[in-house]
Amino acid sequence: MTAFALRTGTQRSLDQRERFYDLLPELVAADPRVVVLLADIGAGYLDVPPEVADRIVNVGIREQLLVSAAGGLALSGMRPLVHTFAPFLLERPYEQLKLDLGHQGAGAVLVSAGGSYDMPTAGETHSGSRDVPLLDTVAGWTVHVPGNADEAEALIRAVLPGDDRVYVRLGAASNAVAQPVGGGMTVLRRGSRGTVVAVGPTADRTLAAVADLDVTVLYAATVRPFDGATLRATLTEPDVVLVEPYLAGASTRFAADALSGIRHRVLGLGVGTAELRRYGTVADHDAAHGLDVAGIRRSVAGFLGS
After folding, report:
1. Residue 104 lies in a domain
2. E strands along 55-134, which residues?
3. Which residue intervals of 81-227 are DSSP H helices?
4. What is the pLDDT of residue 12?
5. Domain that holds residue 38
6. Which segments in the chain show pLDDT lower than 70?
7. Are residue 190 and residue 163 in the same domain, yes or no?
8. Are residues 98 and 203 located together in one domain of the fold?
9. Are both 225 and 147 inside the same structural domain?
10. Would you give the DSSP letter of residue 245?
């Protein structure tokens, strides 16, 4: 895999979703194949030049149509870039994802917003923690989980020219420094007592959580395909912890497959399946799911016996 170039700049938004909206008119203007499909979400944030207005289409709150239209446009030779919140993009139109894209062999770039619970006051309707494991039930998807806006921009620019099926998961949480993306996992630090894989925006808090532990930390902005080769090549003790910003355990079977033939243990940290009915804040939800610094520290140390 070849790492994608990062384009950084102090004048560009540090918020992944804002950066995406800033980029859209430029991306559409640069490639006559690209057509953006929206379902109301994001439509009010775009400053659309007249020359590309016919290729930025708001279908309204019709998520099944959103994905079906993407399938039709792809079959006609266009490159659909489809955007809304994760549960409206993947859960509500799941049948269309399975049939109109997957069954027909049609490609599209799906870009979500909202992470798992970026809008906790919106409740369960806007919870996006099931997105990645849901896509695992259908074949042929590449899944990117960028850790900040620079990574998100690099990934979106890189995948648009293709014809494959790609999901880019945007969220409000961000790491302070962008890492190389598109080339598999990156080694953030090395240790001898186990491996912790931090996915996307969990990297900074994971590094803080294991600062006093003798562990290797790997960073993954691309989770499908899962980079089992790097995990295996950098393994010291066969104990692996996965820290993911979506449903807990989503990648444990992929890690287990990568370590086939090696006696190993894998712990998957992430968002639990229980519905949290007190809205609270994002920080409250992080703490409740054990995805804050203290929770990650407690889980990793307990698993490794530190």
Report:
1. yes
2. 56-58, 79-85, 108-113
3. 86, 94-96, 131-135, 149-159, 203-209
4. 64
5. 16-169
6. 1-13, 306
7. no
8. no
9. no
10. E
